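User: I'm curious whether this sequence folds into something compact or stays loose and floppy. Could you predict its structure so I can see for myself?
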Amino acid sequence: MEPGRDNAGAGAVYVWKYVLIIGIYMAAFVPVMRAHEGPPFPIIVDEEVGPFLVSVWTDPDIGIGTFFVIMEPLSGGNLPDITSVQIGVEPVSGRLKETVYTAEPQNVRRGARYYTEVAFDQGGMWKVRVRLEGPDWEGELYSEVEATPDGSIGPIGLIVYALPFIAVGVLWFRAIILRRRRE
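Assistant: Here's the prediction. I'll summarize afterward.
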């Protein structure tokens, strides 16, 4: 053995010890993220209701979820009158009765789009009923959606997401220091 080299393996064990501790910390204390975060997604696509082709898009966050009802005329001509667009939601479990929300029209270039916010008090599967009415027509669409947390964990998220990069930086810096001590 060379002088000063009898302790060379101890530094590597020391670094791996830190890697193991950081790995256990990350696995144990980082919250599990199962949430939908991002733009709304379709739950009903191109269904015929009255004189319309209807799609329903949603972002079902626990707390306040959003729904968009998008309608285009089947004939491709003028937009027939719409008197009411309502969204009804009810937990699949049946623990609450259906709550109905009236959707408000939004300005769009083509067709019609209605928007409403819906209260989801907790996660899980929810029944969705979309009721559409016009002067001489009406129709309903049905679907189910899972209400999920909104995915934001606030300012602490920056720290949580930065931890792996900080850990790699610390290990890299530690390795450089150990290598310089050996030289």
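Summary: Strands lie at 41-49, 52-59, 63-73, 84-91, 99-102, 104-106, 112-120, 124-134, 137-147. The first strand starts at residue 41 and ends at 49.
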